[in-house]
């Protein structure tokens, strides 16, 4: 079967890989020149300041979880070993200013999550017990919530104290759903909790990429396909006996681009009614600030939480020590414990050439229209202030910065949002993307699942 995929993101390449493995002749169209979509390498990132970055950046910081079984299985099928490509750590959510810390011990489920909540620093005993009651109630309900409920409504219905919401549930909601708690779908959030804190112990592990996002597996997948880079598809048109892409006939096609782009591809043909629904999907931005520091600077953990204060322009929610993740710092865990297996983790050693850190802002509506220099300065001030509060060494001067804002990073995960499935009225045309109805929010595992499901739809069709 001669098939095509439009879009070389994680969903598109997952679909292409599945169809290639089934014996299809696959061509992948990609308007850019780097595979990975919204989770890809940026070879020559724009930067402000005298110093460029040592290597490519990603167009956004992503983490994965041990629960992402489909992603990890796909990587292994492509010969990409997750043990080599990720720094795998037990769940630890620690704030840079020292006000909060939740760490999951290596105990069997569900005790790992229960002990983590009971020992959480920064939460009162009433906060901790309320958090446990919420998890127990969700599990008892089969992880189902009333239709149309928001995360804010879920918190209120289960009597979650302000401290638990502010320090735990709200940051997790923003990170996973990219949607404020007052607007976020509680059912999607329950799915996230089910597969993380409510799942097996290993499911809560943090998987922090050691390499750029394209190198994780998209490069390997693209190497196995016929790629048409730099080709911006103008139209995808269902036709008798197949699907036309800019006039070229294929037996079947998977469209795996963002919904607004898919709407444009369908607008002029028989699929124009489908285009109207796709163009109506709401979206939310994510901002990523990469900083190159003049001198070495270590964080206590490779990923830490930031306390936001929007009124002061302090919108940062997470900070990453990319020097440690890249393997340029080898040493000991804080507290003098040896690194297990020689893992590259932050310690009491200094990496040459300064330090690279990344600050992430989810649901970054406030930054999307703000002056970039002012936004950068406010985020830097936020980190300096919170590091000082924790008693860390002063943050060195900034040598260079790159603020990347993806204005359509994910769909806005509102309750009742109608997301399309993989099937369309045309059996040989399927949709893929984290924005389709995967049961997950707009995360990488959802993209992989959608691509594999779209490939399954195509492979149902008679071979030619």
Would you kindly provide a written description of the structure presented here, covering whatever features stand out?
It contains 16 helices and 21 strands. By secondary structure, it is an alpha+beta fold. The protein has three domains: 157 residues, FAD/NAD(P)-binding domain (3-Layer(bba) Sandwich); 113 residues, protoporphyrinogen ix oxidase, domain 3 (Orthogonal Bundle); 129 residues, Polyamine Oxidase, Chain A, domain 2, CATH 3.90.660. The strands form six sheets. Strands 4-20-16-19-18-17 form a six-stranded antiparallel β-sheet. It is globular. About 5% of the residues have low confidence.
Q: Summarize this, please?
A:
By secondary structure, the protein is an alpha+beta fold.
